[in-house]
Amino acid sequence: MAEKTGTRKKKELTLTKALAQFLAKVLLPDLKVRADQPGVKAALQRQHEAERKKNLTADGFLQWQTRVLEQVGAAWVLSCVFIRTLEDRDLLEQHRLAGAGAADSEQLFFELAPSLTARDYLLAVFREVASLPGAEDLLGPRNNAAWRLSPSNEGARGLLEFFRQRDAAGEFVWRFEGNDTRFLGDRYQDLSEDVRKRYALLQTPDFVERFILDQTLEPAIAEFGLETVRVIDPTCGSGHFLLGAFERLVEHRLRVSPAVDAREHAAAALGQVYGVDVNPYAVAIARFRLTLSYLRKARFAKIAQAPRLPLNLVVADSLLHGVRNANLLFAQHESAAGAYHAWGADLFALDDPKATNRIFAQRYHAVVGNPPYITAKDKALRDGYRAFYTACYREYALSAPFTERFFQLAVDGGFIGLINANSFMKREFGKALITKVLPKLELTSVVDTSGAYIPGHGTPTVILFGRNRTPLTSNVHAVLGKRGEPTTPDNAQEGSVWRSIADHGAEVGFENEYITVAEVPRETFSKHPWSLGGGGAASLKAFLESRAITRLGDIVDEVGFGAVTREDDVYLAGGGALSRARVPSSLVRPLVAGENVRDWAISDATDALWPYDSDTFGPTPSGGPAGKFLWSWRTQLRGRVAYGKTQLERGLAWFEYSMFFKERFRTPLTITFAFVATHNHFVLDRGGKVFKQSAPIIKLPESATEADHLALLAYLNSSTACFWMKQMFSPKGMHNGSESNATPFLVRFEFDGTKLARLPIPEGLLNDARLRKLAQRMDHLVKIRTAVLKIEELEAAEISTAFAKHLADRDVALREMIGVQDEIDWRIYQIFDLIPVSSEFIDIPSPLSLGERPFEVRLGR
């Protein structure tokens, strides 16, 4: 049944929602009742204890059981989806769930076995279909959690009725016709939140898959030959890259040898495609999809007519299998990949070790994929990966070692292409990958896709292309991003940013409002962090750094956190509650969060209990006011964990903050800043406050004067510093096609102290007389704008007039602050030699309203 793309997508979304609702509201409650039956509960408890002893789970029984029931419920739903797919595509000899003859089949079943139930009927159908080529791995007991626990008869009957629903015209509500198999992975990905998070399930959009295969598999075929080439996806999931590669190989073969039987071509192409994933059910889906694609290409009318296909897909951990000395880790961790298994390592072992060894005993001419962006939850695995991969640095994401592994799996000169989270480019965990791994390999192209709308990818991404060999050229082809999609496109592959990349990404020198295409010196990509800003952003960043005589870290004593409570709800009680509890004012201080730091000022900081002596900064006695106030929460406060140890194991009093860096509070002057914000927000505090981890602090030497602090503050709040920081710091959250793209100034960044310490400091900056005067003027205006009107000192008749004057003064101060900020920015440009130095200087700049600064006028705001 032909459908327009938009209609089909809308129907698929409706099916996903309906399936998820059925799972949550019908099947899971039913399974929960079944799981509470004494015999079933005892079996589950035994399984949980076995997994706990093998370190395959750290969850308590109830949490573990909830996860298992979600997986079992998803398996029952998806098993029915797969059978309906075969039925609607007329690949089965006999319909069992819906369609012609299905009701008769069920009636005959119950006539032969009247004591059985709808649950037994569904299991019989699963068993029957599993006996066919290509369906055993999907529906048989090896990988299918439906065999682990069954719903009640009513639950099974509900499943049958769901897939047999008809509309007013008598047509089935849910149909699974056509040739597309992508929806199979989508249903699995979207049905269970737990499975999606555990495995980082995310299908790569087909237009991204085509783009990557165009630049990997196609040149591999041209260089190594159609008959020779092998392609692997080491993180194949439900097999999207594998499907694309298989279909390309078949088409190539048909063009080269049109007289050869299509079945021979399809079988040969199938033998050239390899896939690996730790998720057994995702691999089973990939096998099923490849089987369906093979049936179509080989022109088989029924699945029963096809031979059993020797598919090159295995359940394994690509980071461990085939890696030298990996068996040492397996000895320590009985089933390393089993920690990922959704269905339990004891019941479902890995695929045939012989097949796994065969796949990892050879290398590949094209290695493609979309590795997971998550961190490994299992400590044994994390440490094991660290032993094998140089890219594993600090609290690394799996995308780092997988990037290294992709190159390892390629033959000499083999082609590599992967879409990856771009977090490694700027966050510290990516430093080893960038400075130690990639410089030894030929990175051929870097494509910034963070501004493109890629459905499902809430994480900003980058596409990396390379070849497994020593670099042969001095440059790397780069597609640099300038701005994101102005609005979310109806069709993602027709978005302005993606079309710019796809249509012009190969054209060196091309530039529009979305991208810049350039040849970038290779040495640029061997330094951390990367800056992929187009429109000359990288060159400007390099120029600013060339003007520096020192870095921020060289002129300050410390940059870092002030305090971490790890129980904010307990300590941030507010001044009123603390006063009523008779906590003395000496033990109460405003606790500043990053959101309180804006526009040169600190506002609305919450009064918090501060359990320290004001003179020694040591903890107050446990029996004092602080201890008494916190006594009710003593158990949870004692259990706080940092650095892998509890509060008491670290030698701290139970009522202290989890972390308190007292040396950073011995001098009153402190510069604090917002850790996560859209722009640089730095503020000078003169003492009496405590700063959370979301508001890190900068401490200058004790000899630094207030004028020194203000001069540095002016630079830190300048547009020049803002530009440099946005090239260095990592953007937070989604900004593909979101509101943040339509308004780029809404994109939030993580301003971490490690990279902030590298901020370039040009000669004469902190001693510049003009800058100091502007900073002092700004400080004066901030005091006016943040002053509090003390109405208790006024007569009643004066309050209205005084309040009106107070608001007017604040408005005037704001307009003057905008004018001073503009002058500060121009002065910083002069200090960096970005513009000529002028002898003119205005002590008190003219006030400006929003929209009146030159750049705002230029942008037409």
Q: How would you sum up the global shape?
A: globular
Numbering strands along the chain, what is their spatial order in the largest sheet? 3-2-1-4-5-7-6-8-9
Roughly what fraction of the amino acids lie in strands? 5-15%
Poorly predicted residue ranges: 1-10, 328-350, 734-742
Question: Into which percent range does the helicity of residues fall?
Answer: 40-55%
Cα radius of gyration in angstroms: 32 Å
* Strand count: 27
Report the sheet with the most strands, covering strand number, pairing sense and barrel closure: 9 strands, mixed
Helix segment tally: 33
Structural class: alpha+beta
The average pLDDT value, as a whole number, equals 87
Calculate the terminal CA-CA distance, rounded to whole Å: 51 Å
Topology:
Elements: H1 5-35, H2 38-53, H3 61-88, H4 102-112, H5 118-130, H6 136-139, H7 153-163, H8 182-191, H9 193-199, H10 206-214, H11 217-224, E1 231-233, H12 240-256, H13 262-270, E2 273-277, H14 280-297, E3 312-315, H15 326-332, H16 353-360, E4 364-369, H17 379-388, H18 399-408, E5 410-421, H19 431-437, E6 442-448, E7 461-467, E8 475-481, H20 496-504, E9 515-521, H21 537-546, E10 548-551, H22 552-555, E11 558-560, E12 563-564, H23 568-571, H24 575-580, E13 588-592, E14 597-598, E15 601-602, E16 606-609, H25 625-630, H26 634-638, E17 641-642, E18 645-646, E19 659-660, E20 670-673, E21 676-677, E22 682-685, E23 690-691, E24 697-699, H27 706-716, H28 719-728, E25 730-731, H29 739-742, E26 749-750, H30 753-756, E27 760-762, H31 769-786, H32 796-831, H33 854-859
Parallel strand pairs: 1-2, 1-4, 2-3, 4-5, 6-8, 13-23
Antiparallel strand pairs: 5-7, 6-7, 8-9, 10-27, 11-24, 12-19, 13-16, 14-15, 17-18, 20-22, 20-24, 21-26, 25-26
Helix pairs in contact: 1-3, 1-7, 1-8, 3-8, 5-7, 8-14, 10-12, 12-13, 12-14, 27-31, 31-32
